[in-house]
């Protein structure tokens, strides 16, 4: 048996026969839910796994001043899972989509990058930012596109 050159011994190759894993960032905002719906359609048509990712924000020590912020972000994650399950049940038998829900901690950009890397994403779908301040700082979507590591679809 001949040994393959280093370049040919890939355990993972993006986009060869269509996407296998599509990551969609969700945070409960209307644009993120539209992005999840769009990604769901892509996953269904491509027979890909839809990985829905919620990134729980990190709260700096003392910033919450005793407020139960960690519990609040857990509640958001639970509400998102419940909403996604309800939507999946409504279309069961009509549209079949394989999906998983993942929670990561950190800022949205780094959380989505980590998720896409760990899940070996072939594509990332996010909603357009609804914050006016992102015109100056740069939105998560723009930063993901600039990273240039996956095809990124931004849903309005």
UniProtKB/TrEMBL annotation:
Gene3D superfamilies named among the record's database cross-references: HUPs (3.40.50.620)
Pfam families from the UniProt entry: Usp (PF00582)
Basic and acidic residues composition bias: residue spans: 1-17
Highest taxon of source: Bacteria
Span of domain UspA: 20-156
Region Disordered, residue ranges: 1-20
Cross-referenced InterPro entries: Rossmann-like_a/b/a_fold (IPR014729), Universal_stress_UspA (IPR006015), UspA (IPR006016)
Assigned protein family: Belongs to the universal stress protein A family.
Protein name: Universal stress protein
Species per Swiss-Prot/TrEMBL record: Streptomyces cremeus
């Amino acid at each position: 048996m001949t040994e393959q050159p280093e370049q040919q011994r890939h355990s993972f190759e993006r986009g060869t026969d269509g996407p296998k894993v599509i990551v969609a960032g969700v945070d409960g905002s209307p644009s993120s839910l539209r992005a999840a719906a769009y990604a769901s359609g892509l996953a269904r048509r491509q027979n890909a796994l839809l990985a829905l990712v919620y990134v729980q924000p990190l709260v700096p020590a003392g910033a919450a001043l005793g407020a139960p912020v960690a519990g609040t972000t857990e509640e958001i994650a639970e509400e998102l899972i419940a909403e996604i399950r309800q939507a999946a049940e409504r279309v069961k038998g009509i549209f079949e989509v394989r999906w998983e829900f993942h929670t990561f901690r950190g800022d949205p950009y780094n959380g989505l990058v980590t998720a896409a890397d760990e899940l070996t994403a072939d594509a990332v779908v996010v909603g357009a930012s609804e914050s006016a301040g992102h015109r100056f700082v740069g939105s998560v979507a723009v930063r993901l596109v600039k990273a240039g590591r996956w095809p990124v679809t931004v849903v309005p």
